Amino acid sequence: MSLPLFNPFDPQYVADPHAYYARLRQTVPVQQAVLLDGQTVWLLTRYDDVEAVFSDPRMVKDPRNACSPEQLARMPVRPQSTRYARTNMLSRDAPDHTRLRRLVSKAFTPRMVEQLRPRVQAIADALLDAVAGRGEMNVIDEYAFPLPITVIAEMLGVPVADRDQFREWSDAILTAIPPQPATPAAVAALEGLAQYLEGRFEERRRMPTEDLITGLVQAEEAGDKLSKDELQGMAYVLLVAGYETTANLIGSGVLALLQHPDQLAKLRADPTLMPSAVEELLRFTSPVKTSTLRFAAADVSVGDVVIPKGEMVLVIITAANRDPARFPSPDTLDITRPDNKHLAFGHGVHYCLGAPLARLEGEIAFGTLLRRLPDLRLGIASEALTWRPSFGVRGLEKLPVRF
């Protein structure tokens, strides 16, 4: 029997993945499918299954820790330039993952992130100052994207003036994250970013400062803490992951609030609901649709299905966050939702390192927008909005608003 094709680039899927996932949860919540590159994968859509896989040490990130030589030989050969998308801490297992995560974890603790609050607020205000007299803007290009990328660029110590180039590279690179085939544009973007970062590394070797790039370079120079490839991979993942999730949260979150005027009014009336609102927007919009790939290092039971050793697993965060078995009325936006233990940042040892920063940026971005633009409204019909075609993330192409 032939397996169904999982094509996250199908226009109907891109427009409304929730209906597709609801069918999977109800009929085949643990399903084998074929990806566009011909590989076979297990798709998991129930909350309990996704949470369990996130926590299971037998579900590993590096296929070399799970697959037989024969299974490894059947995997697609990817260009050397894509190794930074694969050999970073998101795709590593202990002890390497533990070591790499520890190198940057101090910069993202809640205490350290809270110290960034005045700067994040200043960036949000400056972005709105720039559009205040126009009465309209594109939330994605003029607010949701520049806010988090300015923050992470300043933390890393790379010029904020290069942020448009970062975005261009990132958009292309996200199309090459396994299991997606690496397009020529993605390969060129990875090579361009690698050359750019190497220039920043050399600069910091000559002139150290108090930024994350300097810290990573010094760790590399200390010997066994960071190899050259790991240095590139760490900078890559911090730069791309450091803004992509938050930009999509802000853009999709603004749209969700505008489409649910009762929730928007409730939040305007009581700004103390903002932390709860951010959690609900993370659950409801799921800026990251899927986790990076995992591989079964042993036969693993998921529900009433056994996933054989060496086979590939893709957990669908979007589906888990709308599972009615975990969240009552999951398709309803409720900014006061209690017990909102969503999986937008993952779970377990790979829980998103930048979660405290994303939450802070989300709170400030939404709060500042609602406070300063009391007449905020959509600039076009919801039906005219388009979503970026991407395997792993969900974000709007544009979000025109008026105020």
Automatic annotation (TrEMBL):
<protein>
    <recommendedName>
        <fullName>Cytochrome P450</fullName>
    </recommendedName>
</protein>
<dbReference type="InterPro" id="IPR017972">
    <property type="entry name" value="Cyt_P450_CS"/>
</dbReference>
<keyword id="KW-0560">Oxidoreductase</keyword>
<keyword id="KW-0408">Iron</keyword>
<dbReference type="InterPro" id="IPR036396">
    <property type="entry name" value="Cyt_P450_sf"/>
</dbReference>
<dbReference type="InterPro" id="IPR002397">
    <property type="entry name" value="Cyt_P450_B"/>
</dbReference>
<dbReference type="GO" id="GO:0004601">
    <property type="term" value="F:peroxidase activity"/>
</dbReference>
<dbReference type="GO" id="GO:0005506">
    <property type="term" value="F:iron ion binding"/>
</dbReference>
<comment type="similarity">
    <text>Belongs to the cytochrome P450 family.</text>
</comment>
<dbReference type="GO" id="GO:0016705">
    <property type="term" value="F:oxidoreductase activity, acting on paired donors, with incorporation or reduction of molecular oxygen"/>
</dbReference>
<dbReference type="InterPro" id="IPR001128">
    <property type="entry name" value="Cyt_P450"/>
</dbReference>
<keyword id="KW-0503">Monooxygenase</keyword>
<keyword id="KW-0349">Heme</keyword>
<keyword id="KW-0575">Peroxidase</keyword>
<keyword id="KW-0479">Metal-binding</keyword>
<dbReference type="Pfam" id="PF00067">
    <property type="entry name" value="p450"/>
</dbReference>
<dbReference type="GO" id="GO:0020037">
    <property type="term" value="F:heme binding"/>
</dbReference>
<dbReference type="GO" id="GO:0004497">
    <property type="term" value="F:monooxygenase activity"/>
</dbReference>
